[in-house]
Design brief:
Layout (H helix, E strand, L loop, with lengths): L1 H20 L6 H23 L9 H16 L1 H5 L4 H24 L4 H22 L14 H16 L4 H22 L15
Helix pairs in contact: 1-2, 1-3, 1-5, 2-3, 2-5, 2-6, 5-6, 5-7, 5-8, 6-7, 7-8
Length: 206
Amino acid sequence: MIYLLELIGVAFFAVSGVAASRAKRPDVVGAFILAFATALGGGVIRDAILGVPARSFRDANYLVAIVLGGLVALRLPGVIQRLGSTLPVADAFGLGLFNASGMVKALESGTVDPVFAVVLGAITGTGGGIFRDVLCGEMPALLRPGELYVTTCLAGGVVGLAAFWLGASLSAVMGITAAVTIVFRLAAIRYEWRLPAVQWDGGGGD
């Protein structure tokens, strides 16, 4: 189940990568380059931190998931747009699934303190979005003032960690973490929940 959910997360992040590329009007190759960077970025960062070979470069199913996600974004945007804008919805699902897979893989490794597994999950979840936003010349979502982005990952991770400490299986922990993150992120988008921005003194700004 963990493996399947990660592949689904890869596909959703590929969708968000292609959706983000539309504003830049790239060709098909450029759109898929952005899809690959978005879909694989977080997992590569996670595996590097854990000191293990990146599985995404050793398993052709990741390539299949990216291609399928990219084709959905190119050919069937209406399927996702029924739920809202393509980019934030697809990104929310990718964020939640990668947040969960990052945390669970950290717990599986036995080399990371469970509390820091929550942090690694958040890094994994947001990594692909950072690559996507930087390549598109945008401020990464986790740095935008008031944006509930990494906060949703941390919230999902804390709930998932509580389930782990209560004896839930790793598959259940991944499902719980992903669900909480996705629902929280979608609700934040839908109801425009925001954190207060830091007020910097003496900067001469607005």
